[in-house]
Write a structure and sequence with these properties.
Elements lengths: L11 E4 L7 H7 L4 E6 L7 H12 L3 E5 L8 H14 L3 E6 L1 H16 L8 E2 L9 E5 L11 E6 L4 E6 L8 E4 L9 H20 L5 H23 L4 H15 L2 H4 L3 H13 L3 H16 L4 H10 L9 H18 L16 H9 L13 H11 L1
Parallel strand pairs: 1-9, 2-3, 2-4, 4-6, 5-8, 6-9
Antiparallel strand pairs: 7-8
Family: Belongs to the iron-containing alcohol dehydrogenase family.
InterPro entries: ADH_Fe/GldA, ADH_Fe_C, ADH_Fe_CS, Alcohol_dehydrogenase_Fe
GO molecular function: alcohol dehydrogenase (NAD+) activity; metal ion binding
């Protein structure tokens, strides 16, 4: 490392079976009696939400619920949610859901103490006042949004995504990782979000900005995610696998905002937009091709990844072990039913060159371990196609 590195994670994390009971402690910690709740639509009639509302009612906590949050939530959705929170005069925010729901909750908490429009805070450290206290209950093991310093909101007027980043103020104050929260997620969502979490850990570990602390977190995240993703997708009520997935996702979420990500996310962001695919599936489609491309830049790190993924590397050279990691990644995607090519999800050959141009202009070379030109991206898209 040629420059000083950073590590910070201000979130208090409760984890394990019945961790949901810690909501009571969190509310007491914030001296809260008016709570704004952002929640995924699919959870409104769930046992999870019933348990939470029963607890809130028993403690006399007033709350208002905001749902109807779309994937890649818009600034208009944030404005509507903030209106609900203002009318309640909310003292704290509870997010129950995936990354989109958590992003809306973060945005509402920012506006509650800083005012203005969410557009005003695009960029890094653009707001100065601490947001409302936030409690996050992830219901997918994927984004790590509960501990990440970013919040992504779509500006529909300009047709672009705004990234609002603050390493200290954007992570939730308290995260609750309970296997019950992910027990009803559909299998395909579990697979796609799980691969997303794996890619966070994988790309953060091989990033040019990695440091010893992020390395330690990412290697264990890779181990937890790669060894538990199959059994979790097969049976979401497997509490041991579910908790391992939640913890792995959170560990990766603690790092990638510091290290940055690489070519998988770079390519996937444009694939997802062009083909209207989920973020996790877009990552999964690009992952094996990019992993093989990046191996040359970091064979020692890939060899460590192979070990973390459970490959038997005894007697293998470093390069052989590194190649084992790439094959293990391919096997993982195949076992989860990820389509092997972009064409199988609707891509057309004429899309590839524009996608490569977008990826080349996106600026990921500061993090990706192997320098990547427009021609490299074009070749990667063609290989993935």
């Amino acid at each position: 490392m040629n420059v000083p590195s950073l590590y910070a994670c201000p979130t208090k994390i409760y984890m394990g079976r019945n961790a949901l009971g810690k909501i009571e402690d969190a509310i007491q910690e914030f001296a809260c009696d008016r709570l704004f709740i952002a929640i995924d639509d699919a959870l409104l009639k769930s046992a999870l939400f019933e348990r939470i509302t029963t607890l809130l009612n028993s403690k006399g906590i007033a709350f208002e619920v905001f749902s109807g949050i779309e994937p890649d939530p818009s600034a208009n959705t944030v404005a509507r949610a903030f209106d609900v929170a203002q009318k309640l005069d909310a003292q704290a925010v509870l997010a129950i859901g995936g990354g989109s729901t958590m992003d809306v909750a973060k945005a509402v908490a920012i506006l509650a103490t800083n005012g203005g429009r969410i557009h005003d805070y695009e960029g890094i450290d653009k707001f100065k006042r601490r947001p409302l206290p936030r409690i996050a209950i992830p219901t997918t093991a994927g984004t790590g949004s509960e501990v990440s310093g970013s919040c992504v909101i779509t500006d529909t007027e300009q047709n672009r995504k705004m990234s609002i980043r603050h390493a200290l103020f954007n992570p939730a104050d308290i995260a609750i990782l309970d296997p019950l929260a992910v027990s009803t997620v559909p299998a395909h969502v579990a697979a796609h979000s799980g691969i997303d979490a794996f890619v966070h850990a994988f790309e953060s570990y091989i990033s040019l900005q990695a440091n010893p602390i992020t390395d330690a977190l990412n290697l264990y995240a890779i181990e937890l995610l790669s060894r538990n993703l199959r059994p979790f997708v097969a049976q979401r009520t497997n509490e041991d696998a579910a908790l391992a997935m939640l913890c792995g996702s959170t560990l990766a979420g603690m790092t990638f905002g510091i290290t940055g990500l690489g070519n998988v996310h770079c390519m996937a962001r444009f694939v997802g937009t062009e083909l209207h695919l989920s973020h996790g599936l877009s990552n999964a489609l690009c992952l094996p091709t990019v992993a093989e491309f990046n191996l040359a830049a970091s064979p020692a790190r890939f060899a460590r990844i192979a070990l973390a993924m459970g490959c038997n590397v005894q007697g293998r050279t470093e390069l052989e072990a590194a190649r084992d990691a790439v094959q293990a990644i391919r096997d993982l995607c195949m076992d989860l039913g990820i389509p092997p090519t972009l064409r199988e999800v609707g891509a057309k050959e004429e899309m590839l060159e524009p996608l490569a141009r977008l990826a080349a202009d996106a600026g990921y070379n500061r993090w990706n371990p192997r320098h990547t030109t427009f021609n490299d991206f074009l070749r990667l898209f063609r290989q993935a196609y």
